[in-house]
Amino acid sequence: MSANQAATTPRFGAVYQPFADASAYVAYSQSFQPVVGASRLGAPFGPESGEAYEIGLKYEIVRRRLWATLAAFDIFRQNVIVPDPVDPNFNTQVSEVESRGVEFDLMGQVTERWSVIANAAYLHTEITQDTQANLLGNRADNVPYFSSNIWTRYNIQQTADRTTGLATACTCGGSSGRHREQLRPPPITAGTPASTRRGHSALSLYAENLFDTFYIASAPQRRTQHARPLQPRGGVGLIY
């Protein structure tokens, strides 16, 4: 047996800009992703396909420097890979998974030296159609209801040939999946990079999982994976 692994995926969108610093948009798109593998019964997996609907607002907070976006979306995906409820050592495909939610993004420069990228999202993901009744209504694994992250950097020194800055990145997520004993919601996790550049030479230092927090980061195939402990790293580079 074989599955058709080719398709044409259209995308459409429209933007309305009533003011110079604000605009509204709507978008529609289709997706297609070939899938490799077979089910427990040996049937080859069909390609994953999907449809996405999105509406949103964009606002330019500081002209040509800082932007904010608020969006609502509804995504339907077919032939999504999930663990087989009969034997978790295998995967199966469900007929349809719906993901709907809202998302807020902030990106740009607050000042000439202070940059920020921030995101917050609420996402509800549910199996809405399938031939296996015991899967209907289940949440998709490894997808939290709420997640947020922020990256920000401040350049202490900023000249034409020298830049020294300190940055921090923080992530906060809620519980994921149907099996709450598998995926514990992590506290705020943070990483702190620092870097300096002089001429063509650059030096960087980075600490991942700054608070050395223990939590279960994911559970692929219902096998838990722990987050890595505190990891300091450094690097030296040449820029041309």
TL;DR of this structure?
The protein has 240 residues and is mostly beta strands. The chain is built from no helices and 13 strands.
- The CA-CA distance between the termini, in Å, is 53 Å
Strand content: over 45%
- Mean pLDDT, rounded to whole units? 83
Q: Work out the helicity level.
A: under 10%
Q: Identify the overall geometry.
A: globular
Radius of gyration (CA) equals: 22 Å
**Total of DSSP H or I helical runs spanning 4+ residues:** 0
Low-confidence stretches: 178-185
Secondary-structure element order, N to C:
EEEEEEEEEEEEE
Major sheet description: 11 strands, antiparallel
Number of strands: 13
The neighbouring-strand order within the major sheet is 1-2-3-4-5-6-7-8-9-10-13
Structural class label: mainly beta
Q: What features would you describe in this structure?
A:
The protein has strands at residues 11-19, 22-33, 48-62, 66-83, 91-109, 114-129, 146-158, 162-173, 189-198, 201-208, 216-218, 225-226, 231-238. It is mainly beta. The strands form two sheets. It has an eleven-stranded antiparallel β-sheet, with no helix packed on it. A two-stranded antiparallel ribbon has the order 11-12. Strand 1 and strand 2 form a beta hairpin. It starts with 10 loop residues before the first strand and ends with a strand. The relative contact order is 0.10.
Question: Secondary-structure blueprint of this entry?
Answer:
Elements: E1 11-19, E2 22-33, E3 48-62, E4 66-83, E5 91-109, E6 114-129, E7 146-158, E8 162-173, E9 189-198, E10 201-208, E11 216-218, E12 225-226, E13 231-238
Antiparallel strand pairs: 1-2, 2-3, 3-4, 4-5, 5-6, 6-7, 7-8, 8-9, 9-10, 10-13, 11-12
